[in-house]
Amino acid sequence: MTSSAPQKRLYIKTYGCQMNVYDSERMADVLRPLGYGVTDTPEGADLVVLNTCHIREKATEKVYSELGRIKRMKARRADAGGEMVVAVAGCVAQAEGAEIMARQPAVDLVVGPQAYHQLPELIARAHRKSGERLSADFAADEKFDALPAARATEGFTAFLTVQEGCDKFCTFCVVPYTRGAEYSRPATAIEDEARRLADQGVREVTLLGQNVNAYDGGDGQGLAGLVRRLAKVPGLDRIRYTTSHPADMDEALIAAHGEIEALMPYLHLPVQAGSDKVLKAMNRAHTADSYLRLIERIRAARPDIALSGDFIVGFPGERDADFEATLNLVREVGYASAFSFKYSRRPGTPAAAMTGQVADAVKEERLARLQALLEEQQSAFNQAQAGRVLPVLFERAGRKAGQVVGRSPYLQPVHMEGPADLIGQIAPVRIVSATRGSLAAEPAPQGSAPQRVAEAV
Ligand code: SAH
Ligand code: SF4
Ligand code: F3S
Q1: Fewer C-beta within 10 Å: the chain N or C terminus?
Q2: Which of the listed residues 341, 360, 374 should we mutate to test ligand 1's pocket, taking the one with most ligand atoms within 8 A of CB?
Q3: Residue 255 above 90 pLDDT?
Q4: Count: domains in the chain
């Protein structure tokens, strides 16, 4: 009997942001024609890829400890007469590629985020044990041109990278160094990819970029134009995008939030801090006030929009009064969700060399206070949905039998007792209760139409 099952096992572990999630899927797409099928355990794999993140010190440390574990598995596999190729990809690969190879001999190859299309050649060199096994070129256009058109997607939601890199150079951040300069993919290529995803059953795409709203397809229409174009793709009912920079939030994109039904009312718009002194030292191109005015304009276009953000506490020079300004900004905005971090000193970034580094205990305390406030707001936002009818895209079966799980337009996880054939459908449901992390629903009474939240909390 002949079998079309893949003969080689590929294990990919993904760290970091959604762009890495997208890249991991695309690496699997590149390797599939070579006979690699994805497995969910590294033990016994023929190829192990760690797709890494460099954003904070902890993220980088995790990679080295995971490599220690992989090294032992590789030795076990060699003892059993097999071979395991170990690859490090992603932002740590870009930033410290040569160092990784020197520090951990179990690593066979290193591939930066713009070089995934070179994986087959790098793997061949690893097997031959000859030739350069580090590729960290910046050529985003080549990467996208060389990736296979076909994507193996499962499920009803997908990520779609439309923009890579960053020219903003916030003084704390490694991304401009690990992902290179801003690059936007041509709109036609993005639309083709979106159409194929829709043909495969995908109903929601999240457009990705380190600065996704800096998207420039060359036609002067920016991200708003791209969203309008994708909103016409049959079958694509929901469009989201992340991550945005306040400086690139143009009028057309704000207007799109009020006009395009498929564009979901959720916006991740990191502010980082509420003190103008700190924002300036961070090289953020906004002040607290300009950010607040921007939020007002966005809410005028789409009053029920759910806002999310990123925050850093303990940036060098941050005094108590500066931190209080962050808390005040949070109180004024009212976030539906948020990510907050202690400042992490990254080698090579301007902030790492700044005076006034803040003690860890102070960072801890500030983070705890900020998170308590953000959690309170998130709970309030979720509680405010109780009693409303919302359209939910059901994505999968829940952990409990007979349960289905999906997302509200505001990106809240929603769970409900319901038949499995709801999966893949957008159905109106009535929210019956809420916690900080999720909503519980029941089928909406016959004839009830989904409602918008009248006012954002
Ligand atoms: N391009 C996006 C996301 C970049 S990384 C943006 O500009 O928003 C995601 C988040 O990690 C950042 O928004 C920031 O809050 C956080 N971050 C980046 N560098 C950091 C550092 N050195 N220490 C702590 N948090 C950091
Ligand atoms: Fe980093 Fe700033 Fe660029 Fe975001 S905008 S990726 S925080 S440098
Ligand atoms: Fe991390 Fe690189 Fe993303 S540093 S957050 S994986 S762009």
Answers
A1: N
A2: 341
A3: yes
A4: 3
